[in-house]
Specification:
This protein is mostly helical and 513 residues long. The protein is 72% helix and 0% strand. The protein is built from 22 helices and no strands.
Amino acid sequence: ILILRRMILWYTDNMTMTRKNITILSLTYGIITASANLVGVLLPNIFQSDYFTNPAFTEWIDFLSQYTFINNTQYISFLLPVILCISYVAFAGKKIESHIINLPLVYSTIGITGWLFYFTEEIIIIIYAMNKGFNLDISFIVKASLLNVLIESLVTFTFSYFIMETIHRKFVLPKYFSDGHLYQYAGTKRLSVMFLFIINYISVTLFPVIILLTLILSLSEHYNFSIGLNSYIVLGVSLSFGIDITVALYTYFATPLKKIKDRILKIKEGDYTSKIHFVSNDSFGELCDTLDEMTESINDKTKKIIEIQNSIITGMATMVESRDNSTGGHIKRTSDCVRIFSEHLKTIDEYKDLPDSFYNSIIKAAPMHDLGKIAVDDAILRKPGKFTDEEYEKMKAHSAEGARIVENVLSSVDDQEFKQIAINVAHYHHEKWNGQGYPEKISRTEIPLEARIMALADVFDALVSKRCYKDSFSYDKAFQIIEEDLGTHFDPQLGLEFIKCRDELEKLYNSYA
């Protein structure tokens, strides 16, 4: 064992995913599988030695000795696993990574195919012998053969699987796949908790019971006694009891693991608020409590980061507003307009299916819609009168510049939806439904919905607010202008819904006064 361990350590220290190393690895695992098969062959011979003196078995041997060609075909049961193992690696193609990951499970499973083939072939041979006139004790031969195959299959599978899986987990996978993420490779087999408990049941319960049954049957042949029904009942109860224990242990492990996995997936999606809801006075209960405490801590820190981020964004917007002597309070008012309009849209059939995150993102993005004005010269931004054509062109550049600034400011933000909405609001809130806006001159639904919403709030505030170059319009006049511009400046359907918010908007603006 020490020599084998040293060889494995030497091999894995020099391991790279070359065809040569993969061949050596598959050959090593093939030897382990063949060794397991050899142990499987020897065990029945130890426990069933008394079967060989049975007249029925002697008759069976006589038949096989007369038909040597049939006996020779049974060598296929030894060749079949070898051919399948070689094929699995040789024809892996682009799935070589997943095939390497699956080697222990696949090879240990392939190892038992020879025994299944052997048993199937033996049944066919028995039928052939009966047709040839041999008076065989079919019941005895099938029973002995079935016990043989069960023992050989169980030994082959469990012996080879646990040895290969131990080597694989400790040496091979850490070397070939040091970054983890094994299930990114197509075709990788997931080893579930249920599978592991089935393996445990086979090793700890089924295998000893089959060995015990084989030994009892062998002794019954030697001492010429029959096995009573009670003995079979005891063996059956033992197997059933093993199944009950396996299911109970599986439930004990699988339930908390599933809850933990589901919780981690929610954390991955950004949900830090829900809890696992698993109460148990064991290691799983402690793990669940620790995970809940960790997510609470992450949630608190995330809130603080978002608050800081929002403060920085609002601060930048306020700084821009302080340079523009015509838009005092514009940021707060338009943000409140967007909030009221968003709450109304949530009740409208066409817009109510949009996620809350969409509306929340628009409200958060509203203060950033004019960030691009930070790049406009004071002489233009603070001009009390009407712009010249040249000045107006420079002013119009603030939309594209705003989108660039917002993208840079939010570059490290994980919320991709919010980031894109904020960029769209800054970039397109001056576009018009008829394509005569700026900076891209796009039209209709080419204009992102969030920008169409922002456009209504932005223009409404400009209309009802006093500017250095105009007095404020009355609410009647402002809503009249918006209604007249439906289908030209504004999305006609969206504009009609905005007009329906008139009572709440008037109440809002009256509160400012």
